[in-house]
Each structure stands twice: as structure tokens, then as C-alpha cells.
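Memo subject: From amino acid sequence to C-alpha cells
Keywords: amino acid chain, backbone geometry, C-alpha cells, three-dimensional fold.
Body of memo: The sequence and its C-alpha cells, given next.
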Amino acid sequence: MPTAQQSIRLHGVRQNNLKGFDLDLPIGQLTVVTGLSGAGKSSLVFHTLHAEGQRRYVETFSPYTRQFMDLLDRPKVDSIENIRPSIAIQQSNTVKTSRSTVGTITELCDYFKVWFAQNATLFDPNTGKPISDDTPQSIWQQLLDDHGDAHRVIAFPINKPENLNWSEILKPLTAQGYTRAALDGTITRLSDLESSLSEPESRLAAHDSLLVIQDRIQISANNRSRFIEAAQNALAFGKGRIHILDTEGNSLEAFTQGLISPDSGETFRPACPPLFSFNSPIGACPGCRGFGRVIEIDDRLVIPDHSLSVDDGAIRAFHGEVYSESLRDLQRAARKYKIRTHLPWSKLSKKEHAFIMDGEPSYREGYDQWYGVRRFFSWLESKIYKMHVRVFLSKFRSYTRCPDCNGARLKPEALNWKWNGFALPDLYQKSVADLLKMLGSHADPKVFAGATDPATEGSHPTEQGAALEGIRNRLTFLDQVGLGYLTLDRTSRTLSGGETMRVNLTSCLGSALVDTLFVLDEPSVGLHARDMDRLIAILRRLTRLGNTVVVVEHDEAIMRAADHLVEIGPEPGANGGQLTYSGDYNGMLFSQTHTGRFLSGRATIDAPKQRRATKKGPQLSIHGASKHNLSDIDVDIPQRAFVCLSGVSGSGKSTLLNNVIYQNLLAQKGLIADEPAALKDIDSTLPLSEVVLVDQSPVSKTPRSNPASYSDAWNEIRKLFAKLDAAQSAGMLPGHFSFNSGDGRCPSCSGLGYERIEMQFVSDLFVPCEICEGQRFKPEVLEIEYNGRTIADILELDVDDAVAFFAGTPKVIRCLQPLVDVGLGYLKLGQPLNTLSGGESQRLKLVRYLGKIKPASRSNFTPAHALILIDEPSTGLHRSDVKRLIGVLQGLVDAGNSLVVIEHNIDILKVADWIVELGPEAGEAGGQIIAQGTPEQIADTNCETAEYLREALKKVVPIADLDQLLAVDHSDPSCRQVAEAPSTYNQPAANNCLRIRGAREHNLKNVACEIPHNQTTVITGVSGSGKSSLAFDIIFAEGQRRFMESMSAYARQFVEQMPRAEVDELHGIAPTVAIEQRVTKGTRKSTVATITEVAQYLRLLYARIGVQHSPTSGEAVVSQSEEALLKRLKSILKENKAKRLYLCAQLVRGRKGHHQPLADWARDHGYETLRIDGRLVPISEFKKLDRYKEHDIDLVVADLKQPTALNQQLTTALKLGKGSAFLMQPTGGILSWLSTKRTDPTTGEAFPELDPKHFSWNSPRGWCPTCRGYGQLFDWMAKEEDGAIDHIDDVEHGATCPDCLGARLNPLSRAVRLPLKTTGDKQAASSNAVSLPDLLQLTPSQLLATLKQVKTDQRSGPVLDELRPEIEERMRFLSRVGLDYLGLDRATATLSGGEAQRIRLAAQLGSNLSGVLYVLDEPSIGLHARDNAKLIESLEQLRARGNTLVIVEHDEATMKHADKIIDLGPAAGIHGGEIVASGTLAELRNNQASITGNYLRQSMQHPLRGQHRELPATWSPRKKKDADQWIVLQGAALRNLKDFDVAIPKQRLSVVCGVSGAGKSTLTRDLLRPLVEAAIQTKATKLVPSKSQLSTFNLEPSSFKALHNANDVRCVIEVDQSPIGKTPRSTPATYIGAFDIIRDIYASLPEARFRGFAAGTFSFNTKGGRCESCKGAGRVKLEMNFMPDTYVTCEDCNGRRYGVELDELRWNGKNIADALQMSFEEAAEFFSFHTGLKSLLDAMVETGLGYLTLGQNSPSLSGGEAQRLKLVSELAKGMPTFKERQYNKGRGNLYILEEPTIGLHLSDVERLIELMHRLVDKGHTVVAIEHHLDVIADADYIVEIGPDGGDAGGQLLYQGDVAGLKQTEGSVTAKFL
């Protein structure tokens, strides 16, 4: 048995009918869960195991994302340990979109588009010839072959832009050394052309292009280098085009660099993967948007019967009175033009057809001409806003193949690319089996290089080889699970449940996830016994990858192959739910369970002793049937017999049963048939009274349907109750006893018995209805009893009990007895059908259809003969259930009916009277009748089913005792019934590490590495070396993307998924969770509660169970009758006689979407006006809303200016508004609410229904209208249009809001309270109720204590139970990381970096998962060495839980605890991206090539400059000498600071250190910085508390006593952790201001001044010089409905951002676009002539950012790069002006740096220290808040705050030099130095 650590441990499982048992499931093995149908298997596997595994993983996503996911309920279980992220593979096919295909869901399309882009050839659509891309080398080779030894001229074309003249073009050309050009076949000088421009008839003026001569050269081998250089330059200047001329100037050859047709000149897009994707706007056909089909009017539906004439109604659209006038119009025109409308449509000529459909040839509107059927429909399209028109048009619309792409889904340009004559859609139309053969036969050895076993080490396939390997692997998987007949373009929604499950299974294999829990629901369904061994091999492969596989299954072969078996039983329903067995296969054989008895032979299903005669009896004869893969087959099916259709999956069984038999028999009866097969004849010997098809479609999706109603027993039961005297005396009819309609059901829950509470980002709750308490009916109905039971009691009866209870009522028994017969007697009569298992649903459906079979007519003594067609009735059934089912099926045949069943189950096949075997294979290789006969006859054939039937028909001898059981060799293939080799069983998982090959993301250079599972790996290296690219863009992105493929497509669109990583291979990856570096602290409104997500849960809690109180009276709201509301409404109208008021109902609150259907509904119901987001909109003018924004929509029910039928209008408004309505003023403002549920009993005021946004200070619905949710008033609010406040001038900057007193919420929201059992914490509330602002003032432990005191009832209890665990998880983790002192309403802007970092880790590490790969981005940032030690301890606990940790980190302590270190380098940017070293810490230290190893081997020597600067004499208020060399702050008392004095020496490097949360940022950023700024502004040598001086800086006078000697500081420059630009328009050059200078340089060029170009012309952000196609972005966004937006390189500027007119303006050979592409190192040398610019560029180089390009997009920078870039930017601001340098004005700047080492490697830290010292050398004062020990050790002066965080900190522990700190006993930092 596996150990506890090797098992998923479940304790106290109580989900649904499970009886609280404990269970251990082995990790990394195949477990089969079996048992009778309804025993509780799905409750265990899916509702408990999978629900918890997926829930915990999904919780790592944001609440916003989670609200869109199909969330599973938190299972009822005491605890689950070692749970893995779970993926469920079920039988249901939920795909609705036709965009999803077999190729997309298996990712084959993703691999194909990559492979095809690399291997396909472009063919010219005009000539059919291949098109190639010319290069200088290929041009040279062609000229050498065709023009050897001849002298030739190389020229490039110049095209004149419209906004330039030739003079402006020729001047730059001449300046660059060009002297000659070719014009009209002659060579002339450029100077001559320029001088001729002044002539009236200039040769050049009449031309738009000119050939400029690059070189004249002899085509000989000696001149190859010269030619290639010349050709390269010519291609560059000629925009990819060059001409080869003879020496006279005549053009001989033209070449193009790029894909250009030599015939038409058309330019083609280069092959790229998006071009071959119909899910990308780049490749999707614009006509059908990649669907392959368009919806339009279908002529076949307009004229369905061609045997009818127009006069007899051939045109179906003209039937009826509404549009019959069009028929008369047609008949009038037909008589005029002699169109024969009396003849059948099929007899009319093409000309007559065209006249009727298209109208008169010279049709003009308004001239009484025949407009044609098509114009009739076009006219209707203009009226589509009307509901009845949309309904009418839907009858004549159908999906037809897209005429633009002919169903190929791709753009025409994509179809020009072909591989071996096949376009990509052609390959998608091939079957999986055919594709495997094709790719094998056309394989290029180079393409297959390295295409071997993924686990093989050392294999390095080419990129296209990796793509082809992925294709072949997935095709092989599909073929192995019996799906080789599928085509890749088969739409997913057409797959059966079994096919869907097996396709998804292969997708999971293709994803190569490891350490994941896969749960499968009967994967053997629909699979022939022949393919079972392949399925087992697939399951085994999943476990060998290191996954845990749990399968709900009844198949014996899969149970034999399993490592572990679990049986749930012993019986179904309430009598089940017990763990009856858990162990191996041998133990199961001897167990007394149902499964054990069948496996051991003690229980059997025997073949009938005598089969029904079939040879000479009646038959159903089919001749010449063709459909799908059936081709002209003939088959005779015996009637009044049990007939089975068998054969391998995909052989054509369903087509024969449904399309051939069922649909054609329906058509014979004159009923609507759906795609009947073409056939010559179908004939039944016996008359058919009924044809019934029982397929695998769902029974019901609504909870209103139950076994009683489904079996029609409920109608009879209601009649019984209605006949009772008590019912009749009360005037009750059967309808009163209906819970779906009528007057008897509970009006509050509409007869459901429960209320659904929407919980947004957690699963919705269903709680008993408050009114009927779950009884469904009104009290007066519940008083009626039948034999002592109410109607509600009847619904709680089991079917078995109900049969006994209604024993004297034959009509009820007749309906219920079939349920008992098929083994469903344990179901409750009222159990919702959407809760049934698959097996239960199938049998219930069979019962329902049995009732459809009509009895024999009384006038005809011939017994009724029904044909019953069933598709795999054994689905989901245990063999015990199958045995019972066989009895029911045999009973149907014994009653005189014919039964035809599709089946793979051998137990059913062997009891059949007749078997028809289809095959021999699937798809195109199937569709034939291979054999037919009795089971014995089939067993004697060579068909696929024969060998399994032979085995089943043998006499089974039961094994009697344990010795015999154990003597059976279960490894024998004949015993296992699978073909897999014994060695493949029970192998240990081979994947003990994550293998990456060929990683090329960003700057990575084909990196290959291995990351061990269940260990800690640190990825380090210099800043910008590619660490984040490897960790996040590859490892995390792929892990999450592959897991998310298992989620619904709807949910996936809301998860921010990174694009597919650029990597050849990635094997052995587990589901990933990213914990990224977030140096920001949220928005101005962010609090501890919001960033821990606790606020979201508390808002939901208050919205769902909070008690609304009146803000006016303080009373709790009450319910009010409609009569009372009507009285109040009349009173309001009377008070507002002069006003025009509207009665409105709220329809939508805060819901995204375009809401067109809602507007259509309102229009169709006669309403005229909507109130949308507070604005009145006439419905006639409604346009689709922004689907990505939340909207509030209200309906104007009535204009009350002249109220009529006021009572009815109020009733309607309350009904539409679900109990709420409101009165609106003409301006759109709300005058008063009316509510049946929420009314102030004192004032009569009503309130709206509560929503979570009522409790959000980020939403207008919740925030305080005065401060807009900030809790304070600031000066900047007056500048913001949306935030302008009337009385802003009346309050001081930063003052607490006078209305909400800092609570942030409006009065309505503040008045909602949670009732408490007792008073609770005194800080929480002074009464027995607590509001949300009260709750948020508490600390985590106080909050949890208060929530335990919340008073709940039957409705509110489940809500609190659902939300409290989520809150507890987050709050307890806060306590564990030492932040229990924080109040939840604490603004995040006031948190220290360490506090913010720990909160973030607390929020994301609390999911309690195992088997996950956590990717962390520098978790040590912001943490003191002491706190970092605690963090490392937490990370080690996380790893011990069975997780893998990948940490991007520079911290030495973290590296010391790592199992493996990967060092990237050797430098940054383009100079990095390689693995320099990999191994343990010791190995890294010994690696001489590793920069990290060098620093770890020999620590940085301090001080770096040899000695620290000498400190000035100690400051004293009595000493005037040298006093001005200190900035002295006395009485620092802001927040937790404990009233101490601190001195900072000027022109020194000072470091403020201390534990996280001690008060460092409060002292330095929030107190010292504004005080110094105030001193500079007021020129005060001594700054003392004064409101007038401090009001601007948001400081209270009590926060300090005095500030000395800060007045002579030039300025304060703060370099904090706020982000830099987040758009592609932000670049390093623009951010630091260097690009402004560069633009000025280019604008000063003579050519630029000549053309009137200013500096703005050279900006890519403004009009003038930028490329207008992409607006200077260098890329273009492609948008298309139903697809994500895609960015592609701009084709006009080729990504260079500028228009062609700036290309010729060059400085030293480079234009402005070239300058943007230079690195800062290159630019510093290139622009060295400009002192100011060079100093900026040098600063970038000095900070280690010289490798960045000037135009690099800012979002692509790493965290460390962005931090240093900001430092350079701030340094630039601090540079003194010329005047300041000249007059020596100021004593230098005060630089305040907040943790500048974040994201920096030790080598970069050394550079940073040097940079800070250089600043000090220039006369500046530098104060750094820092935890990095190297920075602390190199500082001239240290200030330490402590000793702890929060209130336990804020003390001055030390100030002085480093030597003194090391001797300080109370220092927390000293011990780490």
C-alpha cells in the first residue's frame, strides 16, 4: 500500500449519498471506481475529488476571472490532503460553437499551422508557378548563369511621394553620393535631371519613378562580394526591388526581396502560423470570419417542394395572409410577361426561375414592377428589429458554405500555399489514419531530425521537427483510441459523448502535463472491445508521465489493468454511498461485492437457452442505403426479434440506425426527417404502429422535471388529490397540486422549493425557500392529505415506497412500475432529473419511451408492432444493472415489438437473437456489412467482434475459494484481454523533471535545461539576461495554458493567457501558479482588504445576507404589500402634480453585454423607452451597447402624467423588477423607490435590491458621493472632471471626508448590517449588528472572531458557511506571516514594501495545493533578512507538500536553500539568453564562467572605494559650526514612529534599514521628503509645525517638532517603485527624454529645414512624419468578431514607425528609424558630439542598460530594467542647469531611493552602489531605503528603525556609521552583516 504521503487522503466524505467514509487513493497510479448505477461513484470522483482539485487551482485566479468559470461546489468532506489540480474528462459534449473542431481541441491545428508555415510553398494564383523570395546571393547566382562576364548596371527604383517634389528627393540622393540614374532607357546624371526641373518640359516632371544607379559591374566570380554589397544597398533603398540594366540603361531583369508575383506584381504576406489559423484575423476568411459557413436565405427552404406550382403554393414564404400580397404581385407580373405560374416549379425554365427569384430585369423601385423573391427578403431584413420578422426569417435561413473560401475557412492568400499539392484545409479534410500515412510517406529526414521519444535526453529536434513530432504524436493518440476515422475539420459539437471524451483524453496526453489528477467518466463508452487495449495503453501513458488517473468504469479489462480498485455500494441511492471495497484486483475477486461476484464468475449473465427464430420471419428490408461512409448497402433486419448492430467505433452503426432506418421511416409516415440517408427502398413486412428512437441525448436540463412528472405518474397523483373532499370543498383542481404552474404553488419560489443565491466568483448556493421552507406549495394546499401524506410528502417518497403507497391505484402503478423494472426504484419522485447519473438518465429515458408504444387497436386483433431503436443502452451500467436491463429489453420483444440496438457490450451481444456486424474498419474503411447472424454464427466468422463473442459464449466456471483465485495468472494476456506487454504495467513514472528544449523566447538562445520535480530551482543571472522569459513566458505560460485547455472555452477567454511560448519541446510540466513581482501597491483606493481579496468576499456576504436599515430612521426595512405601495405611489403623485414622472422597473444591474435581445423584447412588448446607465434612450434609437462594459438598464413601464390603470402598471413594474420599482424624473434622476421587500416602516421610503457593488468604494453605486470612495478630500480632485467636488475649497488637502467620516461608502451601504449573536468585539460595534466599515476596522483575528458571532437562519447560514472558509484561509495566512496587526481598511499606499510583499504572498500561497509548479518572481524583494528567513521557511514547507518551486531570484540566502541553480547570462539583452552554469550551489561557486558564482565565491569587499566618507561633527542645536551639514528631523511621530530625532548627513550615502513594516518608508518618503520640500519652498532654515506651511503636503502638525537645515537643498528627487509606461508607444528613449534631443538634431538637418520639418515631424506619436497606416506604432491591430485582437507588423513601414518621406533624411548615414533601432551603447558613440544627450546615454550605459535599444517597447522590459530606467530618468531631472552650475546655486539634490536593488543581480548592485557614490561625489545627498546587505555595508551612514513591524516598531534603534551598527546589541540587522 502507498504511504500517506503517496496518497490523496479523503476524510469524512459526505457528498450527496456518501456515508462519511475515509479513503486513500494512490498518487501516480490508475484507480478504477466501480459500483451499481446510482451508488455514489460520481459523487466521490467528480463532486468530491475533482471538485476540490479544480477549486483549489482555480482559486489562484482573480475573483473577476472566477465569476465566469463553471465553478464546482465546495464538497462536503472533512478534509482532503495531497490533492492535485484536477482535470475532468467526461462524456458530455458541451461545445456549441462551430469554430471548435477536432483539430483545435487536440491542438493539432496549432502544430499544423507552425509546420505548414515552414514547409509549404507559395504558388502564384495567376500562373500556378512557385514564387520564391530573392536574396542578393540568389540574384547573383541567377545573373552568373544568365549574364556571365557581361557588364551590367545595378539600379533601384525611387517612387515620388505625392507630398514631395523631385527637387526635394534628388538633393538627399546627391548628398549621399549618387550621381546617375536611368530614365526612359537612357542613363543620365542626377545633376542634369535636377537642373532640368526648371524647364517647362522637364523629362522627369512627367514621371513618378526613377531608377537610381547603385553600381556598374562585370558579372564574374571575382566580383561576387562587390555585387552582393551593392545589391544589399540597392534592395534597402529600393524597398526590396532592384533592376538589372545593360550599359545603355535598358532594363533586363527585375528582382524583388519578398514574395512578389513576377506576373502581376502582387505582394504576398510571408508564411507565418497566424496566416494558417481560422481563429486569427490574419488568416480567417473575412466573409465567414473563419466559420466556413454563412447564414443566409436558403432557396431550398423558400421553395421546398418543386412538384408544386407557384399558384399552388410552391413559394412557402408567400403562404398565409401576411405576405400573400406578394404572391398576388408576382401573379400580376407573370401574366404580363407570360410566366407559367400554373406549372410545377421543376417544369419552369431557367429564365422563368430567374424572373421569379430576381424580379424584372429593369426593376426600379416605385414603378409597380415585380421586385423578386430575393428583394422581398432583403426588404424584410430591414425590418429585423421586429420580433415576428426575425421569427419569420429564421424559417428560411440556413447555414451554407461560405462562397468566398468555399468552406476552407481561410483567406484566399493562405490557400495559395501548398505542401505536396495540398492546401492546409485539404489536409484537415483527411482522416487521422490517412494523415498518419501521408506524413510518414512524405517525411523529410531533416524535418524528422530528433523526432523521437519526448523523454529521450539529448535530442534536439529542429523547430519544424518539433512541430511535426507534435502532429504525429497527437494523430497517433487519436488513432490508438479508435478515432482514426475522424477528420480534423470535423466540428466538435457533432461528436458523440464517447468520442468527445476520447478526443479530450488525447488532448491531455498531448499537453504532457504531470502531477495532475485526471478523472474520467467511463472512457470505454462507445469503444469496441478490440480497441480497449489501446485505451488502457493511453491511461497507462498518463500514469507513466507521473499523473494520477481515477476512472469511473465498469469494463472488466480496464479493472484488470488498474493498480487500485474502489467499489461504492452496496445498493443504489439512499442504500448506497458506502465504501464496500478498496484494494487490488486479486482482493476484489474474493470480495462479496457485486463487482467481485461478477469478476470471479460467481454471478453471470447467461445466454438464452433458446433464441427466437429469425430466418423465415418478417423482416425490415433496406436496399441501396448511402450516407456518410455507408455506400449502397443492403441489409435485412429480422422483426419481432432482439437485433444488435455491432462493429468497431466509426464503422457506420449510428448512421444505419438513425439516418437510414429512423429518419427514412419518419419520412414514410410524413413526419419531419433530419438528414435521412439516400436509399432505393425500405420495406417492413409487418405494419409499424410506432417508431421510437432512444439515443444518448440528455434527459432534462431543468430542475422542474423529476421522475414523477417524467413518467406521467404526477398527473394521476394530482387528480387523486383533487378528488379528495377537502380539496373539492376548497375549490381546488388538479392544477392547484402542480409545482410548475397554477395557483397552488409557492409564489415566492415558483414551486421550486428553493432560492438560488448568485455568488459571482464562488459557486451559486441553493437554499430552502423562506416562505414554503422547501415544501413547494402554499399552506392551504399542504393542508390537503391523501392517506396521511401531503402533496409535498409524496414528492419525498422513493419510487419503491410510492408503488406500495399507491397499490390500489392502477393508473399510478402503471406509470411507476417500469421505473422499478429498470432498477430505478430508489429514486425519489421529486428528485430533479438534472442531478441523475448517466446510467440513471439512460434508463429513465427508456422508461419514458416505453410509454410511447401504442397498444393494439380494439378494432384490430393484430397485436401492436413497434420498432424500438436504442443507442448503447448499457452506457453507465454495472453488469448487475445490465442483467436487469436485458430482462426489460427481452420483455419488449416478448410483447411483440422489434428491437434494434447499437451495442459494444458483450453481455448484451451474446443474448441477442441476431447481430449485424459493420466494418471492417472505421471511416472510409468501414461502412460495409461484414457479417450477420446469431451470436454463435458471428462467433465463427473472422470479424472484429467474433473472438470476444467466442470467449463470452463459453461456459463460465465460478472460482470457489481464495486459493483458486490466487492461482489465476492475471498477467496472462488472455486473462487481461488486452494486448499490452506485461512490462508496461505498474512502471514507475519516468518523468522526474521538467525538460525544456529549444527555448527562444525574447533573447533566449535555443536554451535547453531540466528542472527537477518536487524540488526548489532558482533561476538567476544578471538583470535582463532572460530569467523572466524562461520562468514566466515559457514555464508558467505553458503550464497554465495546457491546464486551461481543460476548462470551458467561455471561461478561457477571461483568463489572461500568455501566447504559446516559442519553444521546441516542453515535457513533464505540472499545472503552474505564478506569483509575480508586483512593486506597485494598488490604486489610491486600495486597502489591505482589497489586495487580499477579503473585501470581495465581505461585499458578497453583505449583499446576500446583510440586513438593510434606513439611513434616515435607523429602522430595519420590512416587506410591504402592493396595496400599501399603491397608496404611497398615489401620495407621491399628489405631492408632485406639476412634475412629469415615470414608473420604471430595473432589469439589468452591472451586467456586461450588448443587450440587444433585451431591447428587442421591450420593443415587441410595446414599450418605448429604456434608461441605460442613467440616460433615457428611446427604444427606436437603441444601438448595441459596449459588450465589454457593465451596464444598468431600467424599463420605463408607464408615463404617469395622466395615470390610468395605475394598479396594473404598478403590478407590472414590480413583477419585472422582481419586487422593486422606482419613480423617475424627466432628467433621468430617481425620485423614490417602491419595494415589496425593502421599505422603511417609519418613513415608507423604499430601497433597491442589494448588490456587491453597493459595498464597493470603487463603484458609483457604493462610494460616498462626496469623496468618491477615497475617505479623504484632496486638492487634485477638483482637477478631475469626474471627481469634482462642490465644497473642495472648504476643506484642507487630505482631510477626512466630512460625510462618510472616512468610511468611503454612501449612507445606504453604511446602513446595511450583519446581525450578531452577542455584542461581539467592542471595536466592531456598539450594538448587536455590525456594518461593513465597522468590520473593516478590525485586524484579521478580530474579523474572524466577529464572523463567528454572526447570527444566521436557514437562508443566510449556507451563505456564511460558503464564504467564511475563503476569508479564514486568507486571514490566517496573514497571521502566519506576521501581519495580524494590520487593520483591513489600512490604505496600501501606507504599507511598506515588505508588508505589501508579504500580503501578496499570503493571498497567493494559501490555496493548499499539491503537485503544482509555483513560479515566483523575486519573493525576497522588500523583505528584511530576518523576514526573508521566514519566507524561505514557508517556501520549504510548500515544497514539502509535494510542489515544485521555480524562483527567479538574486538573493544569496534563497540560493543557499535551492536544490538547483540555473545561471543565465553571460550579460544582459542580446548579450545574454544562454545558460552559463547549472547545478548545485557548490557547483555554481566552482564555475569560473558564472558571474553569479564569482560573487558567491568571493563576496563584495566593502567599502568598494576603500574607505567610508568621514561624517561631519555631530549636530547640536547649540553648535552653529558645521550645523548646516546635517538635515535634522526632531520629534518624528507620523503613524507608528515613536517621537525620535534623526539626523541625515548631507553629501553622504545614507541607508535607512530595518524589518518590514518598521516605519522606514513612513520616515523617509512620507515625512522627510514633504518636510524638505516645504523647507525649500518656504526657505526656512528651521521648519516648525504650521498648518499654513504643511497643508500642501498633507501632513498633520503633530507628526514632527522641527526640521533643520533643509532649505539649501536644490530639490528633492524620489525614485520609487511606480511603473513606467505600459504601452508600445513608451520607449526607453522617450522615457528618459533622450528622444526629444534626437528629434531636435534631425529637425536641424538642412534637408529637414528645407522641407519645413520641425521636431514634431520626427515623432512617431503625432501626425506629420509617422506612418499613418499604423499611427506610428509599427504594428496594426486586426479585429474580428468572435476572435481575440491580433497585432501584426505594419506592412507599409515594415515596423519602422515612419513614413517614406523621412527615410531619405539621414545623419551620418542613419535616418530617424535607424536611430531608434540602435542600442544605447551605439547611440552614446553615435551622438557623442552632443554633450547633454551623451550624458543621458552614458547614464544608461553606466547603469548596465547599454544593450537596450532606444525604441524598445517599455512593457517588454524586466522589473530590474524598468527600475534602473526610472533611476536614469530621475537622475536626468536632477542635473543642474547651466545657470545653476555657473552660480553654484544650491547644495545639490536630495535623492530618496526606495529599494533601488529590486530586480538587480549582484553585479548590477555593485554598479548601482558606484552610481550612488558618484552622485554623492557631485555634491548630492542620497538616502536609500534598503534591505540589501551589500548596500548597507557600503553606506556612509546608517539609520535603523525597529525592532518589529507595525505598532511594535517605529523606534530609532541606531544612527551612525556601519562599524557602530555592528556593535549595537538591539539591532536586528547587525547579526546579518
Remarks:
- Residues 292 and 940 are 47 Å apart (CA to CA).
- The mean pLDDT is 83.
- The longest strand covers residues 1142-1152.
- The two ends are 50 Å apart (CA to CA).
